[in-house]
Design goal:
alpha/beta; Rossmann fold; 2 domains; 3-stranded antiparallel beta sheet; 19% strand; globular
Length: 294
């Protein structure tokens, strides 16, 4: 397949979807779109770009299939063990102490692009364990969002296949899940910590989930998402996230997004942790948060 012909076909599809269906896929990274196009051509048995364009132009079901192929909906429990270890041992305990000092009662967390909820539930489980261990009345409130109504509906149910619990310890499974046949349902006490809602990170209508009212998040998870988008969209998402963070708040991303985030004035707090804070450099020293920059 010639790259130039593929790009021309892709441009035609982008124009078609925008013109006929008011769906703008131009925000996605070109390489991601080209891979999706190649896969749809293979799956539909169209061996040329022109044949596939004619096919999608005449077939609304293929339009839906192509758009669905762009949905980034993979998630898993405790996806990055090192990141969760830092959260468990350092970040969350320090946030609890900060809340006590400031006489605040709640840790506020945003799980952006939460897919079917594994990330949000992992955070809620970790918070529940740490709060219980610290014997504190400080609570946690998690706002989990995704652009897909279907994913949010699945997340709210909190029902997962056995295969999805590979990184969940037996103790956590016994404490926080109920087995029903070949599926496991998350405990109600964990669901109570989470508000699931549909939210588009690229919308101009609001900078954070409406349910959160004012943002001010201590932690924002935006993992394995940025690299799917073009640079200007990545910038927009990071600016939105940055404005929603509390003073000294943390941004957690995916491994592949480290350099993208670093180039946007975020500093990685711990080596290889993908846990970031907004920072500046002062007198040659990397400052981790606004608290240290005074």
């Amino acid at each position: 397949m010639q790259i130039n012909n593929m790009k021309e076909t892709l441009e035609n599809i982008i124009a078609l979807l925008l013109r006929e269906y008011e769906v703008d896929i131009s925000k996605y990274n070109d390489s991601f779109l080209l891979k999706s196009l190649e896969k749809r051509m293979t799956d539909t048995g169209n061996d040329s770009q022109s044949k596939y364009y004619d096919y999608i132009k005449a077939n609304q079901n293929e339009v839906k299939a192509f758009i669905d192929s762009l949905n980034i909906n993979y998630s898993e429990f405790f996806r990055n063990p090192l990141t969760f270890a830092y959260l468990e041992q350092i970040v969350l305990p320090s946030l609890i102490e900060k809340k006590k000092k400031n006489n605040e009662k709640e840790i506020r967390i945003w799980s952006a692009a939460c897919a079917s909820g594994q990330e949000a539930y992992s955070i809620a489980i970790l918070c529940d364990e740490i709060i219980e261990s610290a014997k504190t009345n400080i609570g946690c409130r998690i706002f989990a969002t995704d652009i897909s109504e279907e994913e949010i509906s699945n997340a709210q149910k909190g029902v997962f296949q056995t295969s999805s619990l590979n990184k969940v310890s037996l103790k956590r499974i016994q404490t926080y899940f109920t087995r029903r046949g070949e599926t496991y349902t998350i405990a109600s006490l964990i669901k109570e910590h989470i508000n699931f809602s549909v939210f588009d990170l690229l919308t101009e209508q609001g900078g954070c989930p409406p349910a959160s009212v004012y943002g001010n998040f201590d932690l924002v998870f935006c993992s394995n998402l940025l690299f799917y988008y073009k640079p200007e969209c990545r910038k927009s998402i990071l600016e939105k996230v940055g404005k929603s963070l509390s003073h000294g708040g943390y941004l957690i991303t995916g491994e592949t997004e480290r350099e993208i985030v670093k180039s946007s004035n975020y500093n990685e707090v711990f080596l290889n942790s993908v846990i970031f804070q907004k920072g500046i450099k002062k007198y040659g020293k990397e400052v981790l948060s606004a608290d240290d920059a005074d």
